[in-house]
Amino acid sequence: MDRQLTSPLLITPVSAPTKLSSKQTFIQLQHFLSSLPSGPSRSQLERLTDSLGVEIGAILPSEVEKREAERFADRARRRAEKRKRRQEEREREEREGMEGMVEGLEEDGFGGADEEMEEGAVDFEGEQEIGDRGDVEYGDVVDEEDEDEPDNEHGGMVVDNDDKDDDDEKEDD
Fold this sequence. Notes:
Largest sheet: none
Shape: elongated
């Protein structure tokens, strides 16, 4: 560890490096841009190419501004198309979901012409319908008498506990 290890890979130059001029770089970038799909990296390389073209005099500065405006408009158009596609996809999914719910209800027997259900009524297997239960009014249900109820202790008479308290207070005086 005291000395530096030698690299197993030796890179040897084949020829002397050549320096590209600005004009050659501009031409190479223009050819390369034609093969790139539209996206952020392409926009960045287009800007680099435009600035290099202005530097060498191949492009006028007004042309660069026009190209930048076109890129901005193209980007806004692509975004709008993408939003529209997403919105259409959401609407299609919602429509399919609603159609599936309606079909599911029809398959389960809901919504058929042979069954009449009142608004808000839900049909479940084994559930009694309102007509099956008969008319029930307050006080009609006779249950076993509950020992905890005060009226059961006094033979059906309701005793007011407040009256008892008043009677107790009179006796204390």
